[in-house]
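User: Design a sequence. Structure:
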């Protein structure tokens, strides 16, 4: 039996063929049009609009909307539920009696919050249903009674989904801390439009800068000196550090804590501080790349760079080129962080034993190996080490390994997402299927 094609589906198929027919093949184009029209019309004739099961099947496949069925079936709860489950906006065509049915309306709203507009007024003003709607799309609030615009629970559910929908809420809620907290948690820059009381509220300001460090700019001056607020803000955006109170630059303990939070602020310190080993090492806590802001003399100092790569191997990035002849320094770096291999000398990086050491120490650079030497993607030992570290690396290995059972098993045991890169024939192998499906032996 031919299944009913929707109008959109029919046009999609039609256009995909017509676009590939050359002008001189006009007669063929007419034949194609005729065949498609015939199939579409026959398929439509094949649907028995008086048969409930036929209608349910068509609705399930998205080939029919509730609008097309007879009034009799628009009263059928099973059919209507199936329709709104597929597309909530089908509620528009349901019988009036089912627009008052809570189960039907909740099902529709869960699929499409805007379908609330077609529910009976009694359910549009049902707080439980309204909460479901606004938590999915805050604009659905416009279909409820105006009294709900001042309801705190509705407001929090609404702004938690979309902080830009404050326009639908009663203005009195702009002074409610819980509502404002829900907004700034999603949109920190809202602090700019808050009443002054909230710009002085540490909880609100902390939540704001945690979401967007730039919100620090709109905090009350009294909180711009607060170390907790500053640390939270710079952890998101380092250039906020330029605006902090100058007196804090003399607070060494604070500077160390700030550098550990975001090493990039090292660039805003004076030259003397950039020569300070303790401060520079603190900046490498989360990002080894911060080493580029350190004084050049420090980056030429082998003893200091050994300390640096022990904190973060990727700080090798900033080492003076003269130090890239030191195998011990580079080995120390890749043992701390395998990705540091990308910053070693070419001679060091192209040695198989060093690649294997790097992969054993959390190196997520296998996809970048061609930058070093493309041949390594074909090396069995390296490929096995790579997929053991992250099965997804099967994607970057030479394609021949996609049909290598041993390599594929290692990859799937580590990461089932590697399945998409497994050879089609191997996907039928029992052992491979068992590993993918998590069958224990």
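Assistant: Done.
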């Amino acid at each position: 039996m031919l299944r009913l094609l929707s109008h959109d589906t029919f046009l999609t198929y039609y256009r995909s063929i017509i676009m590939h027919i050359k002008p001189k093949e006009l007669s063929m184009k007419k034949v194609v049009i005729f065949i498609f029209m015939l199939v579409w019309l026959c398929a439509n004739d094949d649907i028995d609009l008086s048969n409930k099961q036929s209608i349910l099947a068509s609705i399930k496949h998205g080939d029919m909307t509730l609008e097309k069925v007879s009034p009799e079936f628009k009263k059928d709860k099973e059919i209507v539920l199936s329709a709104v489950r597929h597309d909530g906006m089908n509620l528009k065509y349901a019988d009036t009696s089912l627009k008052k049915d809570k189960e039907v309306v909740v099902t529709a709203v869960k699929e499409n919050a805007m379908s609330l507009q077609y529910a009976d007024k009694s359910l549009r003003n049902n707080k439980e249903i309204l909460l479901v709607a606004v938590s999915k799309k805050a604009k659905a609030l416009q279909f409820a009674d105006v009294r709900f615009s001042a309801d705190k629970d509705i407001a929090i559910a609404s702004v938690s989904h979309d902080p830009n929908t404050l326009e639908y809420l009663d203005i009195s809620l702009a002074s409610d801390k819980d509502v404002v907290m829900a907004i700034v948690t999603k949109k920190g820059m809202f602090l700019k439009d808050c009443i002054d009381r909230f710009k002085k509220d540490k909880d609100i300001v902390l939540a704001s800068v945690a979401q967007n460090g730039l919100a620090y700019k709109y905090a009350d001056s009294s909180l711009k000196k607060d170390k907790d607020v500053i640390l939270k803000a710079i952890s998101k955006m380092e250039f906020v550090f330029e605006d902090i109170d100058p007196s804090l630059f003399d607070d060494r303990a604070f500077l160390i804590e700030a550098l550990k939070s975001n090493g990039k602020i090292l660039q805003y310190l004076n030259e003397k501080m950039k020569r300070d080993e303790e401060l520079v090492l603190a900046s490498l806590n989360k990002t080894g790349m911060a080493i580029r802001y350190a004084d050049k003399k420090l980056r030429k100092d082998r003893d200091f760079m050994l300390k640096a790569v022990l904190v973060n191997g990727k700080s090798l990035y900033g080492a003076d080129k003269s130090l890239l002849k030191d195998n011990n320094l580079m080995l120390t770096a890749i043992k701390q962080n395998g990705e540091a291999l990308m910053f070693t000398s070419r001679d060091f990086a192209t040695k198989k034993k060093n690649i294997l050491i790097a992969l054993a120490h959390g190196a997520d650079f296998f996809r970048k190996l061609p930058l070093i030497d493309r041949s390594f993607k074909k090396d069995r030992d390296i490929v096995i080490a790579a997929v053991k570290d992250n099965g997804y690396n099967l994607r970057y290995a030479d394609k021949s390994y996609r049909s290598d059972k041993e390599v594929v098993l290692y990859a799937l045991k580590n990461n089932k997402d590697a399945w998409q890169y497994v050879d089609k024939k191997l996907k039928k192998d029992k052992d491979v299927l068992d590993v993918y499906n998590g069958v224990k032996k």
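The longest helix spans residues 26-45. The radius of gyration is 32 Å.
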